[in-house]
Specification:
Helix content is 48%, strand content 12%. The protein has 281 residues and is α/β, with parallel strands linked by helices. The longest helix is centred in the last third of the chain and has 24 residues. It is globular.
């Protein structure tokens, strides 16, 4: 999923209101299993209950200000994208394994296909990571790629380090030094709750995105930043609020594109083609 241009370039105060209202009114419609759209009354009441002002979103006439309407438009957009586009693309372990095996049989990959970190019967290939690796290898025409960088990502100027990210990413193209693109994979097929480890994965992505945005803003040096996530139960049944936060990060320009589940098959080959054009250019 790419961001909607309608919501790019919004100031930090816009996202402060998005987060505050989301926290105050909740992310999901109770009993309905969907991401909610707060009403104007809920937005105003939620802000008051949180001890925050409302004059900037509520007009004296009782309606919403222009900012209030923009916030409502965003909540409607976020809800529609998650309920109608994202949820159908998230896979469970069985679906991911089927897609993994289909691609392995068809592509006959030589790229790494790592195992997950589970034990016993849950010890299987890391399905989404393997799918991502196979699709990149199959589309990159033999171009070098670091599928599992064992070093921090660095950007240089004149050979000297300009910025080095705080943590290792899951993949870099073509190299962890001055990459065109970096990505992170968050797959949680066998978790039974949305625990702190999953939440930490979201905040790790936010940290990387903030560092890359600072590099772009301060030094004029860019690298594309992608997030790939999957596991229907973990993200949809347990983690809708974090899906909302991921959509927010996408529009805050901390991520260039998010791939939800089987969307990697739909989008990733074309994205890799754009990387090759950058290398050729």
């Amino acid at each position: 999923m790419l961001p909607s241009r309608r919501f790019l370039g919004r100031p930090g105060s816009f996202w402060a209101n998005v987060r505050s209202i989301s926290q105050a009114v909740g992310y999901t419609a109770r009993g309905e299993g969907v991401v909610k759209v707060p009403s104007a009354a809920e937005m105003i009441r939620g802000m008051k209950n949180a001890g925050l002002g409302t004059a900037h979103i509520a007009a004296a006439s009782g309606g919403l200000t222009s900012l209030g309407r923009e916030l409502l438009d965003y909540f409607e957009y976020r809800s529609k994208q998650l309920n109608e586009y994202v949820e159908p693309r998230l896979m469970d372990a069985e679906q991911a394994e089927f897609l993994f095996e289909e691609l392995r049989a068809r592509l006959k990959p030589s790229c790494p296909l790592p195992m997950n970190k589970q034990r016993g019967a849950k010890r299987t290939p890391a399905f989404l990571t393997g799918i991502v690796n196979m699709l990149i290898e199959g589309s990159s025409r033999g171009h070098p790629c670091e599928y599992d960088p064992r070093q921090l990502t660095s950007f240089t100027r004149g050979g000297a380090p300009l910025r080095t990210l705080s943590r290792r990413v899951d993949g870099a193209f073509p190299s962890a030094v001055n990459p065109i693109a970096v990505w992170e994979v968050k797959e949680y097929y066998y978790t039974t709750t949305f625990g702190s480890r999953v939440a930490d994965g979201v905040y790790e992505t936010l940290l990387d995105g903030m560092e890359l945005k600072q590099l772009r803003d301060d030094e004029g040096v860019s690298a594309l930043h992608y997030l790939m996530i999957d596991a229907h139960f973990t993200w949809w049944k347990c983690g809708k609020s974090y899906l909302c936060r991921i959509i927010d990060m996408l529009h805050m320009e901390y991520i260039d594109e998010v791939f939800f589940g089987r969307e990697v098959v739909e989008r990733l080959p074309g994205v890799v083609e754009s990387w090759l054009e950058s290398v050729a250019g």
